[in-house]
Amino acid sequence: MSQPPCLICSAPSNFAHFGVNSCRSCADFFKRSVLAERIFTCRQGNGKCLITHRDRHNCRGCRFEKCKQIGMKLTDQKTTKLQPLNAPAQSNEKILARVCREYLASVERRKMNEYTLRPTSLHRHVKVNHIQEDLMLCSWSYLIDCIKMFAGEYIRFATDAFPEFAALSLDDQRLMLNNFATRLWSVESQFGTYRIFGSHDGPYFMASLATCFDSRNFKFFTEEENPASCEEIARMTKHYSEKGKTLLGPILMKSKFTDTEYAIIFGLSIWQIDLNQHLPEHLVAMSETIRRNVIEDLKKYYQEELSLDNYSVRLGNLITFEHTIQECTNLFREELQMFNLAGMMNGDIPFLQTVIQIPL
């Protein structure tokens, strides 16, 4: 069965957003425009620009008007979805439901914040040709800005999703952030590549929620920071990206995780202990307990929601993926060390060393 078209730009769409059938790109555009209270005008001045998935970015005025004309409304979305996020977690609420809800909220916040980081220079504002997603190529400075912003949001997600984390002291929360920050980034970049591009076989690899690397153009990632060593850095970046794809691409193709499983892997990654971090015993014990509770709830999900009598293979694939992510995290740290030797780090070293514990 063919996918129904987006009513704004005619791109294929699987879901309704804000009350109408639309692609994610148009839905994100509408939400950003409403929340920022933006005012657009038609580029041609007649309000009759043709909006298709190939040229939907050409006239924001006509695109926004079309969103409103077909009935998009943000108010319903805000009251039905965002309002409960501020409510305290109930003691009888299932762990999976809370983690999934807070993860979706975290993605929405970070994506909105990420759009504000986009470069204004046309030279650095390079769109990626994708039917449904509003993607740009990622540069080094943009990636670092995203990681800095994500670090605070990772803490917020952990606090909202796990009452145990919220009860920790600030010092313990910082130690835990050191433990999981790079791992959460690795989870999202690997999953994002598979979910958006369908596999790890193509030239693109997700760098953040709204940007990606292009293996045919790694110079774009490096050129604004240190042109002299651009060729070598581009070679290193491609090398490490390909290693990550080789490790996790086959697992993702085989497992085909659901959205719930994806959110749970993200949540479990907070409590996966990196032995190199040497965390205090009370944090290790807490992590082990929470992981057991999450996995028990996950088993119920397999039985009750997916109707699986034998879920051992599926659970095994999930745990395998989670532990393989740690290998990718180590690769990322190794890659950053190489970037440092190539002279790319400059003023970012204190943040990378202190906040996410990259040994430089």
TrEMBL record:
Keywords: DNA-binding, Metal-binding, Nucleus, Receptor, Transcription, Transcription regulation, Zinc, Zinc-finger. Residues 91-358 form the NR LBD domain. GO terms for cellular component: nucleus. Residues 3-79 form the Nuclear receptor domain. The keyword Cell inner membrane does not apply. The keyword Ligase does not apply. InterPro entries: HNF4-like_DBD (IPR049636), NHR-like_dom_sf (IPR035500), Nucl_hrmn_rcpt_lig-bd (IPR000536), Znf_hrmn_rcpt (IPR001628), Znf_NHR/GATA (IPR013088). It is found in: Nucleus. One of its GO terms (molecular function) is RNA polymerase II cis-regulatory region sequence-specific DNA binding. Belongs to the nuclear hormone receptor family. This is Nuclear receptor. It comes from Pristionchus entomophagus. The lineage of its organism: Eukaryota, Metazoa, Ecdysozoa, Nematoda, Chromadorea.
